## 1
Amino acid sequence: MKPGYHGILRLFPNASPDLLARNTGTPAVVERSPVDEPLAQKEVQRPTGGRVLVRVESVRKRLLDEDNLCEKYHVDLLRYAGVISGDEADKTKIETSQRKAQKGEEEKIIIIVESC
């Protein structure tokens, strides 16, 4: 018997032979532990001397109220990826806009980052 076979049978007594064969090998390696802590701050790939302008444009079939565009999520992703050094007011200016999608155009978010 393969390692882990009895553990799976204990949790899933009616498991199929295929499920057992696929899940009793080497356990998966977790890349990082899932904890509730912020990601480490990274430096920007190319440090800028001044402020950065981040434009977040939402292309939607049905327009939203301006306060529901949720640009915070996208700006935080830019910060986590190291594209911008921070989202503080003295480092980053954030502009949001939206437009109605043209016929056949898919909904999307367009993010433009430039130094200002």
## 2
Amino acid sequence: MARYANAWSDKWLFKLNASKCKTVFYGRNIDHGYKYSLHSAELENTPTIKDLSVIFDPELSFSQHCKEKIKAYAMLGIIKRNFIYLSEEAFVSLYKT
């Protein structure tokens, strides 16, 4: 499998950074001990992964994702209530911080 992925990425000039790649398993009766590698670098196995700002967990329940979004909206509410006279630029800077 790894040989195929390496050949495919080389053929299409699709450079992958192995240090940023991870593996995640979904489904029943999965062999979690299987190790994937990319260009001789073993990929880390993780139970949850974030893709396009969505957190995926092994059960695909999205509960962790929802908790994170609730925290973000709560922080947004605190900023809005306590800093009502901020410029838009200062508000965005404060929110990102």
